[in-house]
């Protein structure tokens, strides 16, 4: 190919002086002659591009770690390779700008901001991370307590005026601040070490005592919420049991609390439908929730640990098991009483420590206790003879002693007396069964004597009438001594023979007192 001369624009020619200095005037350029092969040379194009970039962006070139393209062995025939190289160079400039911004914002602040997540350096680019330093590796952590300086045996360090003892105010203050990290996590102490806080011994001891108090208080609240039944509320586990009963259709709805006691909370509910066809749920039910804490009723063990029905399952170290056994004990006792025809609540179901029974009352109004109802002389006499008959039925037919019989555990409904709260009832062969029976007889006799019933037997006569024993003693002290002797004889017999057989001598069946 013949060479072709390429000339620049013709000279503007002579003109006035202001025209040569005008920025909008035509530039005076000299004509450069070169061949077409030189114009098409790629090396020449690269050099011209570098010159233009150096003239237009001097700062950017200074930041970059090298020229745009270096080396003679780089293959530039591929457009993909060129695009990747251009993208990498752009990412380097962008990361350099991020580092400058990060340094400008952070300054000397204790809290640093990092733009690490916004960087665009490629993983195969090793040159971009050579001069970088991770701030987390070199920066001092103000939240980490400095190791306390050890004090020599002589108790001080330094000499002369610079002596410092172990009781120095500044040293003790910093040590107390570092010790605050040993408090419970929920006790907020703040950044005392970063602020070089110095706590006196008095302030530190007060904070320490407060932290321990809050920790114990939090534990008590957690225990009360998770493992106990409060006055008129239930814990989450008990609430879940009640929800399941309602969802299963056994209960229609739970209306509210009707009674509270030392051992349980009683709720009223409307009965639903039973899954078993042969079982009918009463229209109104009473839900007895036994309290899952022993704080209010700590003497349960003496009623249950010597009962041969539950003796092998008794565990004093597990309160929840005791509560479940307590509820199961009341269910079995109510079943015995119901089979004997004694007026008492009918058992519907038992779920752990929740006992569902028939409701003694009407339209959500519970039947009044015998101590709260006013009866005339005829009704009082009728109630007395009914109670005597029920006590004899409990002892002879049900083989039970109520163990807490009083006007507080007897209801008056439909013209007759109903017995409730039989969870503590034991059998007569219990090591303290006769003592419990004598206490019941005393409570019943005293109540009806105050009620004006002339035919009331005293506690000793009533004890012999119910138990059928013929204990002849002139005073109460000798009477109780003979009762204890009978209990001791029965306990020795149990230990020798391993069976619960009554060793009580009686002269036939006791007389049945009925109106």
TrEMBL record:
Residues 223-468 form the RIO kinase domain. Pfam families: RIO1 (PF01163). It is an enzyme of class 2 (transferase). Keywords: Antiviral defense, ATP-binding, Cytoplasm, Immunity, Innate immunity, Kinase, Magnesium, Metal-binding, Nucleotide-binding, Phosphoprotein, Ribosome biogenesis, Serine/threonine-protein kinase, Transferase. This is Serine/threonine-protein kinase RIO3. Residues 1-22, 123-160 are annotated as: Disordered. InterPro entries: Kinase-like_dom_sf, RIO-type_Ser/Thr_kinase, RIO_dom, RIO_kinase, RIO_kinase_CS, Ser/Thr_kinase_Rio3. GO terms for cellular component: cytoplasm. Gene3D superfamilies: Phosphorylase Kinase, domain 1, Transferase(Phosphotransferase) domain 1. The gene is Riok3. GO terms for biological process: defense response to virus; innate immune response; ribosome biogenesis. One of its GO terms (molecular function) is ATP binding. Its cofactor is Mg(2+). Belongs to the protein kinase superfamily. RIO-type Ser/Thr kinase family. CDD domains: RIO3_euk. Coiled coil: none annotated. It comes from the Eukaryota. Interacts with CASP10. Interacts with IRF3; RIOK3 probably mediates the interaction of TBK1 with IRF3. Associated with 40S pre-ribosomal particles.
């Amino acid at each position: 190919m013949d060479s072709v001369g390429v000339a620049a624009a013709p000279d503007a020619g002579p003109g006035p002086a202001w025209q040569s200095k005008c920025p909008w005037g035509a530039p005076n350029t000299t004509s450069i002659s070169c061949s077409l092969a030189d114009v098409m040379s790629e090396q020449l194009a690269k050099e011209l591009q570098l010159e233009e970039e150096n003239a237009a962006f001097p700062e950017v070139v200074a930041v970059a770690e090298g020229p745009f393209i270096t080396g003679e062995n780089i293959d530039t025939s591929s457009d993909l390779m060129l695009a990747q190289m251009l993208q990498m160079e752009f990412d380097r400039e962008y990361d350099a700008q991020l580092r400058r911004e990060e340094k400008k914002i952070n300054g000397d602040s204790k809290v640093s901001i990092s733009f690490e997540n916004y960087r665009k350096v490629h993983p195969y680019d090793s040159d971009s991370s050579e001069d970088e330093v991770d701030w987390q590796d070199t920066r001092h952590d103000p939240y980490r307590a400095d190791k306390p300086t050890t004090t020599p045996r002589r108790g001080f360090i330094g000499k002369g005026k610079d002596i410092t003892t172990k009781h120095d105010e500044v040293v003790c203050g910093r040590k107390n601040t570092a010790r605050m990290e040993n408090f419970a996590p929920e006790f907020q102490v703040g950044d005392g070490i970063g602020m070089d806080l110095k706590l006196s011994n008095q302030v530190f001891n007060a904070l320490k005592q407060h932290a321990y108090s809050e920790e114990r208080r939090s534990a008590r609240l957690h225990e009360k919420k998770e493992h106990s039944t409060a006055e008129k509320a239930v814990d989450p586990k008990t609430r879940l049991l009640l929800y399941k009963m309602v969802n299963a259709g056994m209960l229609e709805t739970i209306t509210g609390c009707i009674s509270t006691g030392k051992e349980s909370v009683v709720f009223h509910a409307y009965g639903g439908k039973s899954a078993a066809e042969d079982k009918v749920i009463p229209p109104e039910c009473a839900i007895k929730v036994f309290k899952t804490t022993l704080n209010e009723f700590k003497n349960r063990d003496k009623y249950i640990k010597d009962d041969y029905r539950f003796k092998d399952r008794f565990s004093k170290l597990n309160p929840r098991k005791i509560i479940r056994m307590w509820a199961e004990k009341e269910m079995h006792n109510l079943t015995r009483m119901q089979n004997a025809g004694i007026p008492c609540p009918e058992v519907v179901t038992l779920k752990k420590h929740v006992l569902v029974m028939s409701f003694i009352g009407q339209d959500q109004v519970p039947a009044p206790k015998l101590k709260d109802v006013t009866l005339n002389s005829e009704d009082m006499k009728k109630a007395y003879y009914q109670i005597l008959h029920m006590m004899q039925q409990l002892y002879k037919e049900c083989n039970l002693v109520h163990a807490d019989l009083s006007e507080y555990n007897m209801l008056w409904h439909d013209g007759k007396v109903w017995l409730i709260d039989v969870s503590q009832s034991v059998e007569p062969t219990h090591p303290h069964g006769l003592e419990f029976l004598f206490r019941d007889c005393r409570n019943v006799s005293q109540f009806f004597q105050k009620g004006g019933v002339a035919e009331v037997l005293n506690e000793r006569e009533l004890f012999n009438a119910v138990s059928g024993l013929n204990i002849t003693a002139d005073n109460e002290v000798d009477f109780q001594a003979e009762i204890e002797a009978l209990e001791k004889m029965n306990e020795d017999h149990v230990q020798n023979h391993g069976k619960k057989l009554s060793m009580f001598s009686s002269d036939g069946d006791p007389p049945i007192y009925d109106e």
